[in-house]
């Protein structure tokens, strides 16, 4: 007698992440502040990190919604999920200095390696392949994913914007980790987190930001990404 096949899991059946503490490294920069604000506004416990604890605390007070501020090491230690939103030129140094604090953590890299010249923004390709793959190489004891690349810092930080209608492409090696990040994205009204492959595919996701910058400049917009038929 053969047993019935187990039903396939609904890909939109995501875990409850409301009890997780989210740390944002680079939480005093535009992108980091915006993500911290949106997640905290949605009810998530958020800690913003900076190289200077006092700067992080000032940013936290400005953000409100129960956000706390700490230096990067304390932010990493006290968080369940750590979003890396530092400038690309400080990416390697920041992560090298936090290897111990990030061990065992779920790390979400949203850094976009970009260059700028008179023609505008263009994608850079790190030696490891992408910022996310560089993070994975630097943090062998962390669980690295990639997400939140295509969000407008202006929209994220605007308290008058109730819903940010965009998709967040999530990449990683462990499906459960990706689902956690998808669920965090879904906490923000209007957003969906969509699984988009393994970390080896992160470069083209990071690079797309250069195209979005061109779109936004041409049309004076804050364009994001929406995936169809899913």
TrEMBL record:
Q: Domain named Pyrroline-5-carboxylate reductase catalytic N-terminal: which ranges?
A: 21-113
**Does Oxidoreductase appear among the keywords?**
yes
Q: Which InterPro entries match?
A: NAD(P)-bd_dom_sf, NpdG, P5C_Rdtase_cat_N, STEAP_metalloreductase
Q: Which organism is it from?
A: Streptomyces boncukensis
Taxonomic classification: Bacteria, Bacillati, Actinomycetota, Actinomycetes, Kitasatosporales
Q: Keywords of this protein's UniProt record, alphabetized? A: Oxidoreductase
The membrane spanning regions, by residue number, are none
GO terms for molecular function, please?
Answer: coenzyme F420 binding; cupric reductase (NADH) activity; ferric-chelate reductase (NADPH) activity; NADP binding; oxidoreductase activity, acting on NAD(P)H
Q: Name one Pfam family in it.
A: F420_oxidored
Know the name of this protein? NADPH-dependent F420 reductase
């Amino acid at each position: 007698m053969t047993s019935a096949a187990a039903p396939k899991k609904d890909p939109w059946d995501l875990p409850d992440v409301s009890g997780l503490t989210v740390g944002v490294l680079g939480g005093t920069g535009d992108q980091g502040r915006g993500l911290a604000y949106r997640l905290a506004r949605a009810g998530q416990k958020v800690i913003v990190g900076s190289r200077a604890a006092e700067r992080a605390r000032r940013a936290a007070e400005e953000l409100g919604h129960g956000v706390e501020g700490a230096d990067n090491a304390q932010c990493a230690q006290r968080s369940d999920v750590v979003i890396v939103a530092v400038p690309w030129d400080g990416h390697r140094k920041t992560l090298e200095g936090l290897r111990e604090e990030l061990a065992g953590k779920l790390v979400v890299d949203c850094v976009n390696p970009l260059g700028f010249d008179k023609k505008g923004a263009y994608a850079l390709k790190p030696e490891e392949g992408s910022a996310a793959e560089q993070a994975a190489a630097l943090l062998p004891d962390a669980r690295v994913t990639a997400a939140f690349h295509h969000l407008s810092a202006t929209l994220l930080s605007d308290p008058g914007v109730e819903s940010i209608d965009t998709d967040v492409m999530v990449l990683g090696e462990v499906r459960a980790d990706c689902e956690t990040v998808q669920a965090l994205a879904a906490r923000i009204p209007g957003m969906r987190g969509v699984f988009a492959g393994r970390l080896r595919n992160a470069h083209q996701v990071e690079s797309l930001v250069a195209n979005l910058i061109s779109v936004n400049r041409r049309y004076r917009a804050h364009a994001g990404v929406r995936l169809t038929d899913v």
